[in-house]
Amino acid sequence: MIRVLLVDDQPLIRSGFRALLDLEDDIEVVAEASDGSEGLELAREHLPDVALVDIRMPVVDGIEATRRIATDPALAGVHVVILTNYGLDEHVFQALRAGAAGFLVKDVVPEDFLHAVRVAARGDALLAPSITRRLINRYVTQPLPTDTETGLEGLTTREREAVVLVARGLSNNEIADSMVISPLTAKTHVNRAMAKLHARDRAQLVVLAYESGLVAPRTP
Q1: Which of 19, 56, 114, 195 is deepest in the core (most CB within 10 A)?
Q2: Of the candidates 108, 143, 146, the residue with the CA atom closest to the CA atom of residue 126
Q3: Where are the beta strands (DSSP E) in 65-113?
Q4: Which residues pair with 28 in a beta bridge?
Q5: Which of 70, 5, 12, 13 is closest to 38 using CA atoms?
Q6: For residue 5, what is the enclosing H or E element?
Q7: What pLDDT is recorded for position 144?
Q8: pLDDT attached to residue 175
């Protein structure tokens, strides 16, 4: 059973999402919150698998709520998906930097919404390669200073290769095919890279790969 926390200051939005989720046998809405502060308290109380968090709310906004969840060791199993009315903007990238697993625009079709919840619950990133390129091309424009430690120094050659493939949008099975290894070994390389780079999930691994210069943006 996938446990979901809804955090949005608009009751109508919350009720609409809840109505969709309640129809699914494998998903349970465990709590609802109207701002980020309340959402953080309920996350600690209920330990959901997925927190659907509006990006713009009173008291504590979605970016700050995401940051607090991502930095709380007790909430390591909570995957944040940002909800936005505005599509791709600088706030979305800030949320990904803060630790969000991905984002959804609120006018998403029900099938894609439900799929996204399941993907996030598995710990996968909700970032298609095309969206990743747009994010990076718009917001990761300044190279890091040459003396900046990125953490990449601790990665093995195979782990670096796996990170590059993750940043290009490949699944573990596709990484396995590309590296001519088993899917289990591919997953191990990815997980070890995440641990060494202190990346909460694959979305953060993608951001780190581009920000460190390990992967260069491609033109669309």
Answers
A1: 114
A2: 108
A3: 79-84, 102-105
A4: 3
A5: 5
A6: strand 2-7
A7: 46
A8: 92
Gap between the Cα atoms of 78 and 30, Å rounded: 13
Distance, first Cα to last Cα, the chain: 38
- Distance, in Å, from the CA atom of 63 to the CA atom of 100, rounded to the nearest integer, reads 8
**Confidence (pLDDT) at 193:** 92
Residue 208's pLDDT is what?
82
Q: Cβ(54)–Cβ(28) under 8 Å?
A: no
pTM confidence score:
0.70
Determine contact, residues 25/2, Cβ cutoff 8 Å. Answer: no
Q: So what's the pLDDT on residue 128?
A: 55
Query: What residue type is 77 in one-letter code?
Result: G
Cα distances from 121 to residues 1, 27, 86, 117, 118, in angstroms, run 10, 10, 24, 6, 5
In the prediction, which pLDDT does 217 show? 61
Q: What amino acid occupies position 31?
A: A
Are 117 and 81 contacting, i.e. CB atoms less than 8 angstroms apart? yes
Block residue for tokens 């979901």: 4
Coil/strand/helix, residue 29: strand
Give me the residue label for tokens 């953490």.
Answer: 151
The pLDDT of residue 209 is 83
Calpha distance 159→176 (Å, rounded): 12
| Cα(69)–Cα(98) distance, integer angstroms | 9
**Residue that the structure tokens 């991502």 belong to:** 70
